[in-house]
Design goal:
The complex is a heterodimer of chains A (228) and B (216). With 228 residues, chain A is mainly α. Chain A is 83% helix and 0% strand. Chain B is of the alpha/beta class and 216 residues long. In chain B, strand 7 (158-162), helix 6 (170-185) and strand 8 (189-193) form a beta-alpha-beta unit. The chains are: A mainly alpha (228), B alpha/beta (216). The interface between A and B is medium-sized, with 30 and 34 residues. Chain B: It holds the Pfam family ABC_tran.
Chain lengths: 228, 216
């Protein structure tokens, strides 16, 4: 009986388990994605089909929809584990807690963030997004959605013990999401005007690195408080 | 309170006070649990048994006092303690979307083991033939056994078990009792709550810690 599991193996064990559970529970993947697609497709119907108007508002619509879709899916990040007691086991396991929450957040991003990134260009066509902006759209989504998952996880960890934490969760997280939204949409706008947008990307990248390093500790500490 | 730091003291409580919903569950509770002891925490519903176990596991913080592992505050030696602790709450920590075998594999791997034969372990808890069954489709007792299976492959010394016998049949309870005795003989300790009478572990071996329901 040797304890021969390395940190990397523990990380991938947890990642694999979360993906496995989600695959057997397909609604969890499709609900946020469907929400994203529905919101974006409803806008042209609501504000009329003029290409100029649509391409002007396209970055904002796509990003706001992505942000709300990501928030919609957040709640179940720790809820199921909290309800069936697996979270307690995770807190008491000999593996470092921050490593394990990072695995859970990564699983969450693969299940909700990656599908959003993949369908975003299709929806951008519907909104007449400027041809120059596609690169910026993909880059901001690729860098920005992990930030949404990481910051959101802190809020979820804080509210997981509450029975009706939904509203509180939105209030806690939305202010943290706003910088990502601002820099992402202005990067896409800049790209549409053929201006350089690497500065915006660098700031979103910095947010990603910062939250990647700090969020796991905050999530771990919040989970300990929530299960107290 | 005399400091008692013998090498065999695994878990100790030092003046623990717990307050829930503005009610004192217990106060200034102190005890030492040595290697080789089987301890039953008894008391009526609502007397704080689960709260005490959660405090000893480090999941909850006491209002006052501290829980210690080998004489050191568990918050200060958490890594070391978690490495030596097996806690099973009354929530089993079994995922209903995974099969019995996947659940066991996950639980053991996340506890750090990589050299186990899950089929053999499931066989020991009478779950052979159910390896591929989703835990959500198992009966309550089998669900519980899936969680308990990890007791058969562990080198943790401290076992904290909250109602381990719930939904387990008589034969299963006897097997568990035997396992507890064996664990105690190997230098471990078992701290559990249960309302069930045990047949193999007699009163001469079993140490009881009594919590009373208090109205203040």
């Amino acid at each position: 009986m040797n304890k021969g599991i390395s940190f990397t193996q523990a990380f991938f064990t947890l990642l694999k388990r979360d993906l496995q559970i989600a695959i057997r529970h397909k609604g969890d993947i499709f609900n946020p994605l469907l929400f994203f697609i529905l919101v974006v497709t409803l806008f042209p119907l609501g504000i009329g089909p003029e290409p100029q108007v649509l391409s002007r508002v396209a970055p904002g619509i796509i990003w706001v929809a992505a942000l709300l879709a990501s928030m919609l899916s957040l709640e179940r990040l720790f809820k199921a584990d909290f309800v069936d007691g697996s979270l307690e086991q995770m807190l008491l396991s000999p593996q470092p807690l921050s490593l394990m929450v990072l695995a859970k957040v990564l699983a969450h991003w693969i299940l909700t963030g990656v599908p959003l990134i993949l369908v975003a260009p299709l929806l951008a066509v519907l909104l007449h997004l400027d041809d120059n902006s596609y690169g910026a759209l993909m880059a901001t989504l690729a860098l920005g959605t992990p930030v949404l998952s990481l910051l959101g996880a802190i809020g979820v960890a804080l509210t997981v013990g509450l029975r009706k934490g939904g509203v509180l969760l939105s209030l806690l997280i939305l202010p943290l999401y706003i910088p990502v939204l601002i820099f992402a949409t202005s990067a896409i706008d800049a790209a549409g005007l053929n201006l350089p947008y690497s500065g915006h990307l660098a700031i979103i990248g910095a947010m990603l690195v910062g939250s990647l390093i700090l969020a796991p500790f905050a999530i771990g500490a919040s989970l300990r408080v929530s299960t107290n | 309170m005399v400091e008692e730091k013998t090498a065999t003291t695994l878990v100790s409580a030092d003046n623990l006070t717990c307050i829930r919903e503005e009610r004192i569950l217990f106060d200034e509770l102190s005890f030492h649990i040595q290697a080789g002891e089987i301890v039953q925490i008894e008391g009526p519903n609502g007397s704080g048994k689960t709260s005490l176990l959660r405090i000893l596991a480090g999941l909850s913080r006491p209002y006052a006092g501290e829980a210690r592992y080998k004489g050191e505050d568990i918050n200060r030696c958490r890594d070391e303690y978690n490495d030596d602790l097996l806690y099973l709450g009354h929530l089993a920590g079994v995922k209903s979307e995974l099969t019995a075998e996947e659940n066991l594999n996950f639980n053991l791997r996340i506890s750090g083991y990589d050299d186990f034969d899950s089929t053999a372990i499931l066989n020991k808890v009478n779950l052979s033939g159910f390896e591929e069954a989703l835990a959500g489709h198992l009966s309550a007792g089998q669900h519980r056994r899936t969680a308990l299976a990890r007791l058969w492959h562990t080198n943790c010394k401290v076992w904290l078990l909250d109602e381990p016998f719930t939904a387990i049949d008589k034969k299963g309870v006897e097997e568990l009792e035997q396992l507890f005795l064996q664990h105690a003989q190997n230098g471990g300790c078992v701290i559990m709550t249960t309302h069930q009478d045990m047949s193999i572990i007699g009163d001469d071996i079993l140490r009881k810690i009594r919590l009373d329901y208090r109205f203040i």
